[in-house]
TrEMBL record:
It holds the Pfam family SPOUT_MTase. The keyword Cytoplasm applies. Its EC number is 2.1.1.177. S-adenosyl-L-methionine binds at L73, G104, L123, S124, K125, L126, T127, F128. GO terms for molecular function: methyltransferase activity. The lineage of its organism: Bacteria, Pseudomonadati, Pseudomonadota, Gammaproteobacteria, Methylococcales. It comes from Candidatus Methylobacter oryzae. Gene3D superfamilies: 3.40.1280.10. It catalyses: pseudouridine(1915) in 23S rRNA + S-adenosyl-L-methionine = N(3)-methylpseudouridine(1915) in 23S rRNA + S-adenosyl-L-homocysteine + H(+). This is Ribosomal RNA large subunit methyltransferase H.
Length: 155
């Protein structure tokens, strides 16, 4: 199974790339995590934010591979515990489909993206900086994998 982390944002600070890479490389090839960065729309104080979010959504949709299970990361989504994420990962693996996890920009996800999702996952009711979310997701995926494989990382 390949997990595509499709995230609005590029040109991240080195610490973000380093943190993400640390957990992504720990996952085995049969659970490969691939980051696909979506260039954010340019925002100014007079920007048409609705148009920017819509365009970001179109770029996200274009980055989603065919026949993939789509999961949005969104505050109104379902708050999973790490064991529940492990169960979701097992379900995704058993389905035989690749998975695409979608992280929106500062104003969230486009409606067109939300409508395609089969699941929505909420990391927290808190709002996190978008660069940090990709690290947290990568770490939680690795932790969930470690639960499924009785690896000592989770203990």
């Amino acid at each position: 199974m390949q997990i595509n982390l499709i995230s609005v944002g590029n040109r991240m600070p080195g610490w973000v790339q380093q943190g993400y890479d640390e957990y992504a490389k720990r996952l085995p090839r049969e659970c490969e995590l691939v980051l696909k960065e979506i260039t954010p729309g340019k925002r100014t104080k007079n920007s048409d934010v609705a148009r920017i979010v819509k365009e970001e959504g179109e770029r996200m949709l274009a980055a989603i591979p065919q026949n993939t299970h789509i999961v949005t990361l969104d505050i109104p989504g379902k708050p999973w515990t790490t064991p529940e994420l492990a169960q979701a990962m097992q379900r995704w693996q058993e389905s035989g489909q690749h998975v695409s996890l979608l992280i929106g920009g500062p104003e969230g996800l486009a409606e067109s993206v939300k409508q395609l999702a089969r699941e929505s996952w909420s990391l927290s009711k808190l709002t996190f900086p978008h660069p940090l979310v990709r690290i947290v997701v990568a770490e939680q995926l690795y932790r969930a994998w470690s639960i499924l494989h009785n690896h000592p990382y989770h203990r």
